[in-house]
Design goal:
alpha/beta; 120 residues; two-stranded antiparallel sheet; 8 strands; globular; Metallo-beta-lactamase, Chain A
């Protein structure tokens, strides 16, 4: 696997989203597209990636409001906490592993995180 990792500023100076991908398989995911969904779509195309999932770290509007734009442009499925306001296509329960690219080389694992939000 040859990893693609881009941190993208997504609204003001406090939020970032991420583009992760595998250059070998040309598959990738977008994390928290927020207020700049078009940037994620453009960068994924520039990198030659097919976006398979949109991952939300939690359900605040400043993390999920770009979901529909990215989903429309790429056909990707939204992955988030089962009770997220993002209404996920892929509900991420504790221990769920989302695979990106080749086999099990890049895995995103969801584990509950105590905090101020129920859907982290």
């Amino acid at each position: 696997m040859r990893l693609i990792f881009e941190q993208i500023r997504v609204g003001g100076d406090r939020n970032f989203g991420y583009l992760l991908g595998d250059r070998t398989t040309r598959q990738g995911i977008v994390i928290d597209p927020s207020y700049s969904p078009e940037t994620f779509v453009e960068r994924s195309r520039d990198q030659g990636l097919t976006i398979t999932h949109i991952l939300n770290t939690h359900g605040h509007e400043d993390h999920i409001n770009g979901n529909s734009t990215v989903k429309e442009a790429t056909g990707a499925r939204v992955a988030a906490h089962p009770e997220s306001p993002a209404q996920p296509d892929v509900p991420l329960t504790d221990g769920y592993e989302l695979q990106v690219g080749l086999g099990r080389r890049l895995r995103m694992r969801r584990d509950a995180c105590a905090g101020r939000l129920f859907d982290r």
